[in-house]
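Sequence dictates fold. Next comes a concrete instance:
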Amino acid sequence: LFNLVATQNKNANLKVQSLFLGFFV
């Protein structure tokens, strides 16, 4: 269960980073 949550959190972080990169680019 913790592993699943960690994976979802990582995916969320990647989406957030993609949004920030989209704003900066």
Helices lie at 2-24. The mean pLDDT is 83.
